[in-house]
Give the backbone structure.
Amino acid sequence: MATIPTVARLQPFASTIFAEMTELAVRHGAVNLGQGFPDSDGPAGMLDVARQAIADGFNQYPPGRGVPALRQAIATDRARRYGTHYDPDSQILVTVGATEAIAATILGLVEPGQDVVLIEPYYDSYAAAIALAGARRRTARLVPDGDGFTLDLDSLRAAITPNTRMLLVNSPHNPTGAVLSRADLTAIADLAIEHDLYVMADEAYEHLAFDGHEHISLSTLPGMFDRTIVISSAAKTFSVTGWKIGWACAPAPLLDAVLAAKQFLTFVGGGPFQPAVAYALDNEQQWVAALRDTLAEKRLRLSAALTEAGFGVKRSDGTYFVCADITPLGATDAYDFCRELPARLGVAAVPVSVFADDKASWNRLVRFTFCKKEATIAEGVRRLRAAHTAPASS
Ligand code: PMP
Ligand code: GLN
């Protein structure tokens, strides 16, 4: 009997950084600015619809592709905001969070041994899903650009080979908070078309671009609709990360491949939450706009506090996250820094190096989330003020 029973391809993914840092936060009574989940609820009307759905007996398997009202609401929403037209019956699939959509997209469209190109730092589930599919990952990278980040186009060109089947692109970007520019997205689109690649566009933070930065869906660029699988989720848009209602939108042949995998992962999920998310997409866009404004403000407050505490703060243009360099604090390893932080200062954060294969290039950055209540952020900020007084052992 092998000492580690986990299959070899999943051994590198034994535990997620979010579980690890949240566990440390709980153990030390730390303010959790690590895992990105809000500590306040989504729109009250949406919560009422979910309660009512349960009371009305909407508690059995929903249809395989998702309840029709939700697929229609997703189609209407995307047509209104992006001008793209997805047929709710054949081009939209409701999934168990964006996470399942990501896994099913790769499992359904990439053969074992084919390459998938990621842009690092990248969301952690991408690498695990690629491993589940028996595919191989290659990485391009973001690079510093002023106080923010931009795509290193040469690294993307170099990562693509004749064996590449799919590109994974996330904007607004977790963990950096970068919103990719039209120029970067156009360059990605040009390469995808030149090499005839599928593109998975992870738009989980599509509503959370700040300061007038425009979120551009890759699916809207010329030549991209037919090769792009757009993935999004109710989690971040309506502050319901525990509901796990996500979706994939793509032309029917691509979506059929995603469905082929999805139906044997979970078949369906979240029955009573689906009508509630449909209601929210149709009726709560103003709530979402207010959430965006509030988050933009909290981002400024947390960024200013981190600067005051001595971190080298990067610009966040969207998402739940801001990244900060620990070098000015005399620390050199973000992972060690984050492992110590809950006990040392009573705050939890996440090292950016866990989102990268080239860990050395990203081991000075720590990701903090500002998706928490005013009081939670204020307490985190108060505790972080002591960051420079007790240098990390790293
Ligand atoms: N993609 C990105 C970039 C994320 O940050 C997250 C976490 N919200 C997900 C996908 C997963 O989303 P969900 O919680 O809907 O599964
Ligand atoms: N997406 C959230 C984050 O990046 C949390 C995801 C998770 O806990 N798996 O913090």
